[in-house]
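Course assignment 3, question 2. Fill in each field.
Student: A.L.
Task: Predict the tertiary structure for the chain below.
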Amino acid sequence: MTARVDKQWKDKGLTTYSTESILGTLGHYGITIDEASFKASAAERFPLDLAIEWKPKWKGTGQFAPFPYAAANELFNRLLPDQPTPMKTAHVVLDLIANALKLVAGREDAKLNDAFKNWDDMVPRLPPKGESRDAFLRELVTFLESWAQTFNELPERLAKAGKKEDAMRFALVHEVLFTDRDGCMTALVRAQTGEREGAVADLKKWAEDTTRDVFARYAALDALFQLEEFEAAKPLGIAVFDEAARQEKWGLADSIAHLLSHIAQKAGADVTYLREVRARLDRAHAHTGGHH
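Answer field:
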């Protein structure tokens, strides 16, 4: 009889079961796969992608309904131990966040250098820019979602705490993971550490550069917003929205439209500009199902 995991697998954790048991359970509920075929399937995909691919064939219910993702993740760790998974990467990033928060708070037990070492060791093994990186990031952000705001704020918070070198290193974590933010996160740190004029000039240039990817233009626009450079961001935001709409990237366009509304609320605007913002909100919502 083929070995399988038992109903207590969620309490015990899959690390306590043999690879044979995990593969046997997958097979019992509809996914026939062995070590070799798993490695082949995992060459350009990640646990969530595999679990989604398996879902139509999956017959497990109850305790075994969520088994495919857990199994895919555990098999990645065992059979491809040198390949970073989104979950393992999230653990490294969360360790960075935890220790950066300790440093900002002035705690003596902050070990940010150790956390950066773990990050630096992982970076060369991250998937290259492209579809593989995009799939990796889609899964990664599900683990970081509840910490997203803190993660985004920490470069500036470290800079304001007088930790410029750590702030720059943390900004580079953003830029390595999310390549559309290249230059923008470090510009935020520069602006907080005596280089505001140059940093703002760079961000304006990147936001208005029509040869630049529209997501990268939005990253520069968002950085200007964070620096409260509202008057510069107003016309640039309209232009970046219009490019996103032209490319029918409506999720991005919706984010830009809401950023424009926040700018108008914070900085004030004349009636003409408010009409321009309202028209873009309406257009974005028409395509995304959003509400005012």
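Instructor remarks: The radius of gyration is 23 Å. The chain is about 70% helix and 0% strand.
Grade: pending
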